[in-house]
Amino acid sequence: MKKQNELILFLVFIISITKVSFAKIEQFTNLNHSLKSRYLIKTSHLENIENHVSLASPSLLQQWEIIGGGVEAHYNEYLNLLVIDKDKIINGQVKSYYEFKKEEKEYSFSTFASTLFHELAHADYDIFIEESDSNIRFLLNHMLKRWVARNIKGYSNRIVRHEILGYSAGGVIELLDYEISNVLFKYGYVFSQDKCMSKSFLKKTAKNLNLRRDFVLENHREDIDYAEKITPSTIWVKGKEINIDAYKLPKIYKYGIFNYFKTTYQIPSNRSELIEKINESHFIEKVRKCYADIL
Ligand SMILES: [Zn+2]
């Protein structure tokens, strides 16, 4: 009976999708550009994943939250379909940061980017990781599988592993967003709005930090290791919250998952590495420009 219900829901889902498009990668071009320039990540693997999924916008049923609604994005593994909320798509393209900004919704870009990264990690797991002979496959399909079987009972082992990876992917964007915001804020730059702080704040900052023309950013706080920061403390599986922290996910999994994202997207391992990246990026010129008439 349960299976039958699931089948019916699944059919309703397929029928109810209003718009499935088959042009793929181009629909993500603007978004990828934003991810690359804002989070300083390498997006080539993201493009591989996007090339294997189709983009759809939700039907009325979903918009009314009758099926799988209430989320900005959702991945359907049976159809390799990425369903994205209609208001996050413009002219058939997934919106970039600049579109969010134009609509004065720049604050919500990071949440959207993190949700999308989460969903694309599900696609990555299905399409690439499962088929590869890689460390991450061994980690997820053997080591983590045993750990989940021992610790988290009453849930599908596979879904729990999928969600740990998905939430970790979302965690990568959340962490980068938080860290880049903090580092730039110290130098008078508002990352979320992509603009300089007020003149008076900049003047104070220039004095406090003893800035000279052609300055570079430095780390003013203690360094932190990012490897343990991206794995989730809780995950949601079929509407239920699982407290991962309570089961103490061992370091080896946290580092293994982090390493996968680090090598795939070239994310920094700690704050010092992040600052180095920022100093080599377009951000340094943007920040220096804020001080054009001050220094
Ligand atoms: Zn998920």
Features:
295 residues; alpha+beta; 2 domains; four-stranded mixed β-sheet; two-stranded antiparallel ribbon; 10 strands; 53% helix; globular; binds zinc ion
Explain the layout of strands and helices.
Elements: H1 2-16, E1 19-21, H2 29-39, H3 44-52, E2 54-57, H4 60-63, E3 73-76, E4 81-84, E5 89-90, E6 93-94, H5 97-102, H6 109-129, H7 135-151, H8 157-186, E7 189-190, E8 195-196, H9 199-208, E9 234-237, E10 240-243, H10 251-265, H11 271-279, H12 282-290
Parallel strand pairs: 2-4
Antiparallel strand pairs: 1-2, 3-4, 5-6, 7-8, 9-10
The structure holds zinc ion.
Strand order of the largest sheet: 1-2-4-3
Distance between the termini: 73 Å
Oligomer: single chain
Order of SSEs: HEHHEHEEEEHHHHEEHEEHHH
Helical residues, percent: 40-55%
Ligands bound to this protein structure: zinc ion
Q: How many strand units?
A: 10
Structural class: alpha+beta
**Global Rg:** 21 Å
User: β content, as a range?
Assistant: 5-15%
Total number of distinct structural domains: 2
How would you characterize the overall build of this protein?
This protein is an alpha+beta fold. It has 2 domains: 18-131, no CATH class; 133-295, no CATH class. The protein contains 12 helices and 10 strands. The protein has helices at 2-16, 29-39, 44-52, 60-63, 97-102, 109-129, 135-151, 157-186, 199-208, 251-265, 271-279, 282-290; strands spanning 19-21, 54-57, 73-76, 81-84, 89-90, 93-94, 189-190, 195-196, 234-237, 240-243. The strands form 4 sheets. The protein has a 4-stranded mixed β-sheet. A two-stranded antiparallel sheet has the order 5-6. A hairpin with a 4-residue loop joins strand 3 and strand 4 (81-84). The longest helix has 30 residues, at 157-186. It is globular, with a radius of gyration of 21 Å.
